[in-house]
Specification:
TIM Barrel, alpha/beta, globular, two-stranded antiparallel sheet, 249 residues, 14% strand
């Protein structure tokens, strides 16, 4: 019963948070696409990053330092060397909570501690890594955390599907799953067409990139299909930091 109540409370908090505009920002009417990866599996920082580079694109990788070099139950975590290679290859290293704890389970002090622990981890990995953007583990957040994170990050990403267009909340960016069991090829095409129609920002998110991915990841072919769909339409493919700068945020 306690678990059920906690789940109901987390969902209610997240639903409320999405309707409170903590950091409203008007995006310019210019379509763009971003590819992001969470946690982050070794296959994302190796296979996924290489595929992006084939298209002269760079991604954003939201990394929980506490998962580095560990088995998650679904995939092997990236190594420190993988993260350094990712950063030096021009990809964006971004922030999860260090332990991958949900934001809704942390009070203000605990959230700060998690973020600072992650920042310290990345400084030790490579002092030139600059953490600018955040993604909510499991996509769950409270209104109070949105306000708190506004002072710490340029943006925070959710897992609520949709196109970011017109006036958006930079602390609750929408993201569409690029996940094998959750999206079809024609849905990718439609999402990109919608980004063009609205002049909006389409953010994809995934986890591992493998021939037989976990239920949270995608295959190399699905990732290439999405990149091809954007490239054919000549939509800029930018990581989160690049997209924010292009938008003037």
């Amino acid at each position: 019963m306690r678990t059920t109540w906690a789940a109901i409370k987390a969902r209610a908090s997240n639903r409320l948070a999405r309707h409170l505009l903590t950091a409203p920002f008007k995006l310019p009417n210019r379509p763009m696409v971003s590819f992001t990866f969470d946690d982050v599996p070794k296959s994302a920082t190796t296979v996924g990053a290489r595929i992006l580079e084939e298209y002269n694109a760079r991604g954003t990788f939201y990394i929980a330092g506490g998962l580095v070099d560990k088995w998650s139950g679904h995939w092997n975590g990236s190594s420190v060397e993988d993260i350094v290679s990712l950063h030096r290859g021009g990809h964006e290293v971004a922030c999860h909570t260090f332990s991958h704890t949900r934001a809704v389970d942390l009070n203000t002090a605990a959230m700060i501690a998690e973020i600072e622990k992650n920042r310290h981890f990345f400084r030790a990995v490579d002092p030139s890594i600059k953490i600018e953007n955040f993604a909510y583990p499991y996509g769950l957040v409270s209104a109070s955390h949105k306000q708190q994170l506004r002072n710490l990050f340029r943006s925070s990403r959710s897992i609520l599907p949709g196109i970011n267009a017109d006036v958006v909340d930079l602390q609750y960016l929408r993201a569409t799953p690029l996940i094998e069991c959750q999206i079809e090829r024609d849905e990718i095409e439609r999402a990109i067409e919608q980004a063009i129609l609205t002049g909006g920002w389409l953010i994809f998110y995934s986890h591992d990139v493998a021939t037989t991915p976990s239920r949270y990841g995608c295959s190399p072919s699905l990732l290439r299909d999405a990149l091809n769909a954007a490239s054919r339409r000549k939509i800029p493919i930018l990581n989160i930091a690049e997209a924010l700068s292009r938008a003037g945020a």
